[in-house]
Specification:
The protein is built from no helices and 11 strands. The chain has about 120 residues and is mostly beta strands. The strands form 2 sheets. Strands 2, 4, 5, 6, 9, 10 and 11 form a 7-stranded mixed beta sheet that branches. A 4-stranded antiparallel beta sheet has the order 1-3-8-7, with no helix packed on it.
C-alpha cells in the first residue's frame, strides 16, 4: 500500500558526491519519519540518516559531517546528499519510511522499505 521509489545511486570516485532520492506514494495518511539505511557486503544493515516530520535529524557516526538528509513534506520525498565519499561507503542504500495509512475508522501504522540502490565508491 506504500511504495518507495529510490534513485540516484551509481559509481563515484573517492572524494566525490552523490545525491539519493526516495519518493513515497500510496494510501498514506501521514509520514512520521523517512530515512536511509545501508548494507555493505558481509556487514549488518546500519542507519545512515533519518529525518522526522518535525525536521529532527539523526546520523550514523560514520557519515556525520559528510552526509546531509533533507525532506520535502508535500512531495513525500527524502534526499540524501553524500559528500566526501569513501570506499567504505560502498553499499546498497535502502529508503525507509514510517507513518500511518489512511483508514476509514483507524489509521494503521506502517513501515516500508525501498528496493535499494547501489552506491559504489571506487577509483
Amino acid at each position: 500500500q506504500v511504495e518507495l521509489v529510490e534513485s540516484g545511486g551509481g559509481l563515484v570516485r573517492p572524494g566525490g558526491s552523490l545525491k539519493l532520492s526516495c519518493a513515497a506514494s500510496g494510501n498514506i495518511f501521514k509520514i512520521d519519519a523517512m530515512g536511509w539505511y545501508r548494507r555493505a557486503p558481509g556487514k549488518q544493515r546500519e542507519l545512515v540518516a533519518i529525518i522526522t516530520s518535525g525536521g529532527g535529524t539523526n546520523y550514523g557516526a560514520s557519515v556525520q559531517g559528510r552526509f546531509t538528509i533533507s525532506g520535502d513534506d508535500q512531495q513525500r520525498t527524502v534526499y540524501l546528499q553524500m559528500n566526501s565519499l569513501k570506499p567504505e561507503d560502498t553499499a546498497v542504500y535502502y529508503c525507509n519510511t514510517q507513518g500511518s495509512l489512511q483508514g476509514t475508522t483507524y489509521n494503521a501504522p506502517f513501515a516500508s522499505w525501498g528496493q535499494g540502490t547501489q552506491v559504489t565508491v571506487s577509483s
